[in-house]
Structures are given as structure tokens and as C-alpha cells.
Amino acid sequence: MSFSDLFDSEFKLRNKGHFSAIVRVALADGKTNQEEKAFLDKLASRLEISDEEYKEILADPFNYPINAPYLYSQRLERLFDLARMVHTDHHLGDTQELMLRKLGLALGFTPGNVNYIIAKALSLVDKKVDLDTFTFEMQNMNK
Questions:
Q1: Residue 1 pLDDT exceeds 60
Q2: Distance (Å, whole) CA 142 – CA 138
Q3: Tell me: the pLDDT tens digits for 83-140?
Q4: How wide is the angle at C-alpha 76 spanned by C-alphas 70 and 77, nearest 5°?
Q5: Which residue numbers delimit the Co-chaperone DjlA N-terminal domain (predicted)?
Q6: Buried residues in 97-136 as b, exposed as e (16+ CB within 10 A)
Q7: 70: which DSSP letter?
Q8: Distances from the Cα of 128 to the Cαs of 51, 109, 125, in angstroms?
Q9: How is 17-29 classified by DSSP, letter by letter?
Q10: Phi-psi region of 65 (alpha: psi -120 to 50; beta: other; left: phi over 0)
Q11: How far apart are the first and last CA of the chain?
């Protein structure tokens, strides 16, 4: 196995874990609505999840390990990606903030500040800031 194959394999595994974690959040109430399904479809495409893998993960998302981001900067990067997806395409319509709150909690943000973090993230994404600006603003929002 070449080094590039190892990297690709690890990357795909991380994406599957990330996607399965989001599926778990979407299924937390026992079902997914049409907007959540459309979001999951788009997310699977962006994470390069094949149709077969998609079906397997939806059938049992607990078969895949969660690769929770350890560093705060990694959580912000994932939040940035997710916020851009739901905000730009409006796949979740009026429930975009609710879904992002659930995902924010799953990423490790605390219940006490998740509402503030999501509101700030959506505000920054609405302004079409880049990742560096987003990260800086999120890290310094209380200053």
C-alpha cells in the first residue's frame, strides 16, 4: 500500500465517521424530515460518500466510529463547513438553526453557549467570510 493510498483511506474513513455522526444527530428524534434528508444527500456528496456507503450508514450509523474533533480550531472548521452548507443552499429552511444547534452540541460546544455560537456562525457565513476570518471572529467573539 502506497503512502497516498493510506492517506486516501484514512480520509475516507474520517469522512464516513463524520457523516455517521451527523446522521445520528438527524435521527435523534427517530426520523428525518424532507429538509434533513436533502441536507444529508448534499453532505454525502461533498464528503465523497458512495451511494452504497450512504445506504449502509443510514441503515446503522453506529457501525462507524465518530471522529470527534479534539481541538477547538477543528470544531470551528467543521462548524464553518456545516454552516455554509445549510445557510448557502437553505436545505433546511426554517429549521437550519435547530439543526445547527444539534450539530454544534455534537461537535462539543456546550449547551450554555451553543445558541450564541450558532447565531454568530450564521451571521459570519451570511457575510461570506473565509475560514480564517470565521475562525478569528469565533475565537474572539467575547473580547
A1: no
A2: 8
A3: 887 776 555 566 777 778 888 888 888 899 999 999 999 899 989 999 999 999 999 9
A4: 95
A5: 21-57
A6: bebbbbbbebbebeeeebeebbebbbebbeeebeeeebbe
A7: -
A8: 31, 23, 5
A9: HHHHHHHHHHTTT
A10: beta
A11: 48
The answer to whether the beta carbons of residues 87 and 122 sit under 8 Å apart is yes
Over the stretch 19-41, which tens digit does the pLDDT of each residue have? 888 888 777 777 777 777 888 88
* Contacts for 111 with CB less than 8 Å, ≥ 6 apart: 105
Amino acid code (one letter) for 60: D
Cell numbers that stand for 99 in this block? 439543526
Measured from the Cβ of residue 75, the count of other Cβ atoms closer than 10 Å reads: 18
Cell of 33: 424530515
